[in-house]
Design goal:
heterodimer; A: mainly alpha; rod-shaped; B: about 220 residues; mainly alpha; Four Helix Bundle (Hemerythrin (Met), subunit A); 6 helices
């Protein structure tokens, strides 16, 4: 990295980790809720 | 359900592409000299913020049409867009303070853009709480549509707040009347990230609409 450039890569990694955790958590939450209700509705198992 | 399967497939593809965007942002996009590597937070922060705003605009538009047409599909879409917008808003509020700490030296500042975005996020949370609290199937979509329209009205203030009020948040560098003020490599990374967030939004909304339909069928709407 060139001299004089702030050394803050840790913050960058932290932000990407936070974003990933939030997006994956939401995706998993959708998956689980869909599975729960698809079982209840009599739709074929294994959804989505 | 076909919609759930399609949404799930789009979401999986989006996550694979998002990993590609991360690699491109980390390894193949130049480091901004003044802010250092932390500037790369921009490539997830900005697309998430823009898609939160678009999600809320679509929520409001669906609400307006619902009030006239009373079509349940519009209500399902509005609910889905609000929930996905809330998730993307959480990404914005999760990554923004980390970037702010490196650039401004503080995690949070009560300046206009941040405060208005927080207000928009809280309105979205309120929208979801309202939907959960009203049990009447006729009144719930109507109340929700009105609140969705109110959420939409806040969006222009969020976006234009950097012009309207003096604050810490920088002016837009891409969505502005003049040409984007970013080098081509950074602009390409941002464009790719924006495209992936577009796919993510579509995949999430498709699944959420399918979920709303299943809940209605099972009597849990």
């Amino acid at each position: 990295m060139p001299e004089g450039v702030p050394q803050n890569a840790g913050y960058m990694v932290a932000a990407y980790v936070v974003a990933s955790v939030l997006l994956v958590s939401y995706a998993v939450s959708l998956f689980l809720r869909l599975r729960k209700f698809s079982r209840g509705s009599g739709a074929p198992p294994g959804l989505p | 359900m076909k919609l759930a399967r399609v949404g799930f497939a789009i979401t999986v593809v989006s996550f694979v592409l998002l990993a590609g965007v991360y690699v491109r942002a980390f390894a193949f996009t130049p480091i901004e000299a003044a802010q250092g590597p932390a500037q790369k937070i921009f490539y997830i922060h900005m697309p998430a913020a823009v898609w939160t705003e678009i999600a809320v605009i679509l929520l409001g538009i669906a609400g307006i049409f619902f009030l006239f047409l009373k079509d349940k599909r519009l209500d399902r879409f509005a609910e889905a867009s609000a929930e996905v917008g809330t998730a993307l808003g959480a990404v914005v509020l999760g990554t923004g303070p980390i970037w702010g700490k490196t650039v401004w030296g503080t995690w949070w500042a009560w300046e206009p853009r941040l405060t208005l975005f927080l207000l928009l996020f809280l309105l979205l949370v309120g929208y979801l709480i309202l939907r959960g609290a009203v049990t009447d199937d006729v009144l719930r979509p109507r109340y929700a549509a009105v609140l969705g329209i109110c959420c939409m009205i806040v969006v222009p203030f969020v976006h234009l707040s950097v012009y309207m009020f003096r604050g810490l948040h920088p002016d837009p560098v891409v969505i502005k009347p003049s040409r984007p003020s970013l080098p081509p490599e950074m602009l390409l990374t941002l464009g790719l990230s924006f495209a992936v967030f577009t796919l993510l939004y579509i995949g999430f909304v498709a699944q959420r609409v399918a979920l709303a339909r299943l809940r209605e069928e099972s009597g849990h709407a």
